[in-house]
């Protein structure tokens, strides 16, 4: 079995328990395998994105084949156009007033100051987690991400691996994946300290898509009101938005 087949079997849950344990142990010492896993995960995500694009293209083809849209009276079109212009005008004004270029820069500054390096003193954690943290601190983010995602595959309830996998995604610009990790973490109610909502808010500020800022502000307010992890930082950041 070559490495690609072994990796695919691992993430598809087809490896026997003993093989899975050997695979995870190899990830800690075999940098070539870690790089192969990182490539596999990236390629799988790209394939998923391509599949979505294909579905969209097929939808467009079906829409064109279905014939022209029913014509509406000219007076109706004028009313729709006028309403649209009003909404766009008000929306543009609101965005101009509320959105500032400093939001993403503010998030980026916080990320650089607080997540460029991770603490290596996490007592009682598995050796593979420490290996992943070491790779992260060395700047080998793809290798670190492969290790953290492998840990999550083995134990989806591992909140440390969930947070760290999210941080790798955030640092590498995979904001959708980071938000997914942090959102899952933030919904946990069994943790003594949970930074999920704060980190999701931070990622949304960095991503900067429509409505991200509003959702980030809502998450920051939740962190503050519920006294969650990151409260002090949320108070500072929301005051600057």
Describe the fold and architecture.
- By secondary structure, this protein is mainly alpha-helical.
- The chain has 2 domains: 3-49, no CATH class; 102-240, Serine Threonine Protein Phosphatase 5, Tetratricopeptide repeat (Alpha Horseshoe), CATH 1.25.40.10.
- It is built from 12 helices and no strands.
- The chain is globular and about 55 Å long.
- The termini are far apart.
- Residues 90-101 have low confidence and may be disordered.
Roughly how much helix do the residues carry, as a percent range? over 70%
Gyration radius, in Å: 22 Å
Overall shape: globular
Q: Terminal Cα separation, in Å?
A: 53 Å
Low-pLDDT windows of residues = 90-101
For CATH, the homologous superfamily of the largest domain is named as Tetratricopeptide repeat domain
Order of helices and strands: HHHHHHHHHHHH
Q: Count the beta strands.
A: 0
Mean pLDDT: 79
Protein name: Tetratricopeptide repeat protein
InterPro entries: TPR-like_helical_dom_sf
Organism: Larkinella humicola
Transmembrane segments: 77-96
